[in-house]
Design brief:
signal; 206 residues; disordered N terminus; alpha+beta; 6 helices
């Protein structure tokens, strides 16, 4: 049976409220607005504020590795379809999580946020993973590297009373069809590809 860490009530209410987006807001603007609403610093010109410690209780300002953006540009420019672009995003997130592990130092992040790791340096829960992944995606979009997707506001699932623990993920949407996809590295160790699956399917998982 999976065990989950205990969060402050304020964090849980934030998770539940993340599903609401402002109608008519541009996708990039919505993602940036989310950072401001949560009290986090949005990414800026390659600098991201990496969240860790669970619930973004610890933060470290880092610059994206100089190898990530050129590699990301090459992968994304070679992607001729939405499916190929998602494959590229998975590879870019893989490299990014490996970089964050190096930057943070200490014990590498344990997948699935074991409760005993709460508050520890370098350990990330779904809140941290979502903030960090969304930062990367916003950086890619701001550089015009996403041809087939836009970055959306993070989304959540689980409300306790439906028998599921709250969980949150970064989201991208296909520009043509509008189909939304979860980009979720929470179950993976640093340096492994994230889960990328239709948001509707992600919402059914527990």
């Amino acid at each position: 049976m999976m065990r989950f860490p205990l969060y402050p009530v304020s964090v849980l209410f934030a998770l539940v409220g993340w599903a609401a987006a402002t109608p008519g807001m541009a996708a990039g603007e919505a993602a940036r607005r989310w950072f401001v609403e949560q009290g986090y610093a949005p990414p800026n010109a390659g600098r991201v504020v990496a969240c860790h410690g669970y619930g973004c209780s610890r933060r470290l300002s880092v610059m994206l590795d100089t190898s990530i953006i050129p590699r990301a540009a090459a992968l994304l420019k070679a992607s001729k379809s939405a499916a190929a672009e998602r494959q590229a995003v998975g590879e870019i997130v893989r490299a990014y999580t490996a970089q964050l592990a190096r930057e943070l130092g200490g014990r590498p992040d344990s997948p699935g946020s074991p409760p005993q790791m709460s508050g520890q340096h370098g350990q990330m829960d779904c809140v941290d993973e979502t903030a960090n992944t969304t930062s990367l995606l916003v950086e890619l979009e701001s550089r015009g590297l996403l041809a087939h997707h836009r970055v959306e506001r993070p989304q959540s699932r689980g409300l306790f009373f439906d028998g599921r623990y709250p969980h949150v993920t970064a989201v991208i949407a296909e520009t043509k069809s509008g189909l939304e996809w979860a980009v979720d590295p929470w179950r993976q160790a640093p340096g492994q590809k994230p889960d990328i699956l239709p948001l509707s399917q992600w919402r059914q998982d527990s």
